[in-house]
Amino acid sequence: MLIFKEILTLSDHLASLRKNGKSIGFVPTMGALHQGHISLVHRAAAENDVVVSSIFVNPTQFNNPDDLKNYPRTPENDQQLLELNKVDILFSPTVEEIYDGRKSNYPELDLGLLGKVMEGTHRPGHFAGVVNVVSRLFEIVKPEKSYFGEKDFQQLAVIRFMTKEFGFSVRIIGCPTIREKNGLAMSSRNLRLSEKGREEASAIFSALNFAVKNRENHSPTELKKAVQRKIESVDSLTIEYIEIADEESLQPVADWNNLFHVRCFAAVLCENIRLIDNMRLY
Ligand code: AMP
Questions:
Q1: Most buried among 3, 78, 135, 185, using CB within 10 Å?
Q2: Whole-number Å distance between alpha carbons of 146 and 171
Q3: Which residue blocks in the chain are alpha helix, DSSP H?
Q4: Vertex 92: Cα angle to 89 and 96 (nearest 5)
């Protein structure tokens, strides 16, 4: 695996690969890698000649300074895991290298209603930071395809929207959520949970499953309340939001009529760690 820290040397190398007709699949991450990230790497390897992964803890997408400070960092382990899983190129730049004293080459993007629900309202500035860094990375790597997890479903929608608005030619591929044995969605932040916390947080998965099983007997509002009650019944869990929303617009739904796909979304605090998850209902 080749490791690059500088944009210029990476760009040169990728240009020569591209000249030789190689297709580039890209997996951006913030490190503290787990099997969720690795599932994206495997998909990229199956569909491209060259896999590029980046590790960059992007300060502009953290709305909470403590969250940025405490974000898990496991660089040696990450490098080993990527190498073991046949990533060709790791890009791990510094903040200065990425932003070069400015924030982005792209204008601020109005996300419209997409930015006014769930993560958009609960983490002010978060998606502006995500758009910021992913547009910058796309501009540097110029991949044919880029891979993102459905665990961060709203982020995936924002990236699809951004790709269209800014005219990037990359294809965005959404990949299913990988879970722990107990159902908890894998996340770098799980490293900060105690063993007890990790066990109790699996109630989020159980509640989402409950929603899938009981969708036919309840309206979206009733179902949302039932999911809330299930999660609230675990002492260590505090709900930030539960939402039942249309997959395309991400706007909350009032009934099940005439909708293409609908998902239940959850943001929950456990031991002060913020966990998100979602599951398709229809
Ligand atoms: P992060 O390092 O948290 O920024 O995540 C990097 C990429 O991995 C994003 O596209 C995430 O959606 C994806 N990802 C994170 N956790 C999972 C998971 N449990 N299953 C699938 N993809 C994931």
A1: 185
A2: 6
A3: 7-19, 35-47, 65-70, 75-84, 95-99, 119-122, 126-141, 153-166, 195-200, 202-214, 220-232
A4: 140
Tokens describing residue 168: 């990037």
Q: Best mutation site among 56, 58, 92, 152 for ligand 1, i.e. most ligand atoms within 8 A of its Cβ?
A: 152
Ligand 1 center from residue 151 Cα (angstroms) = 6
Residue pLDDT, tens place only, 180-211: 999 999 999 999 999 999 999 999 999 999 99
Q: Which of 9, 27, 44 is nearest to 78 (CA)?
A: 27
The pTM (predicted TM-score) of the whole model is 0.97
Q: Quickly tell me which residue has 């000249």 as its tokens.
A: 19
Distance CA 221, CA 153 (A): 21
